[in-house]
Design goal:
mainly alpha, Serine Threonine Protein Phosphatase 5, Tetratricopeptide repeat
């Protein structure tokens, strides 16, 4: 999109997305109410600045006291957007201003779901340290641990388990994080889950245990781990 382009029917939102701080300041000097105006997607300038990663504009908007927890049409808060896009500095600023770490969007996802699936370690730690629920379930009953295990994000699996994520929660298909790790041949993740109490005998809706979905020699490796 050229120079940030036109993403919104509210000019201030376009300036925020394009990173044009001085023009944005001038706009707001003329009409302070624009700071909280929502566009066609129910997004404010803060949403767009988070999306594009313009920390200076985020800081300026937050200094004006704009609402930090407004949601767009999809239920995404600025924190959802910043976490998903991997904007560490912005996540920190939003949390400092009271962003709700357990806010859910229309898919039932919290910011931690996106940090986990996109392997954003620092953001996950910030969220967890501020009380993000490691066992939050989205509309498919999937937790951040399910996402990290399926994607093979080993360090993320470690972070979540360290913050007391439950390894045996089942998603809407009856799969635990271990089922997903085994199905994707995530050997290290599977071993880590088992060492933290993940059961090798829970059945999913297809009546298969993690051992039965494991490929290659992974099943025997896990069995040996459990049998000690």
């Amino acid at each position: 999109m050229e120079d940030g382009g036109s993403v919104s029917n509210v000019e201030l939102c376009n300036l925020a997305y394009a990173g044009r701080l001085e023009e944005l300041r001038e706009c707001l000097a003329a009409d302070r109410n624009l700071a909280t105006r929502a566009d066609q997607d129910n997004r404010t300038a803060l949403h767009w600045a988070c999306s594009a990663g313009h920390a200076d504009i985020v800081d300026f908007l937050l200094s004006l006291g704009v609402p930090v927890n407004d949601k767009d049409d999809g239920g995404w808060s600025p924190l959802h957007i910043a976490a998903s896009a991997g904007r560490d500095t912005i996540v920190k600023a939003l949390i400092r201003k009271g962003a709700q770490v357990n806010a859910v969007n229309q898919n039932g996802c919290t910011p931690l779901h996106y940090a986990a699936s996109k392997n954003k370690h620092e953001i996950a730690l910030m969220l967890l340290e501020k009380g993000a629920d490691p066992d939050a379930k989205d509309h498919l009953k999937s937790t951040p641990l399910h996402r990290a295990a399926a994607k093979g994000n080993l360090k993320m699996v470690q972070i979540l388990l360290k913050h007391k994520a439950s390894p045996n929660i089942q998603d809407s298909e009856g799969n635990t994080a271990l089922h997903l790790a085994c199905d994707e041949e995530r050997v290290d993740e599977a071993k880590l889950l088992v060492s933290h109490g993940a059961s090798i005998s829970i059945e999913n809706k297809e009546e298969k245990t993690p051992l039965q979905v494991a490929k290659g020699g992974l099943g025997s490796v896990l069995r040996r781990l459990v049998e000690g």
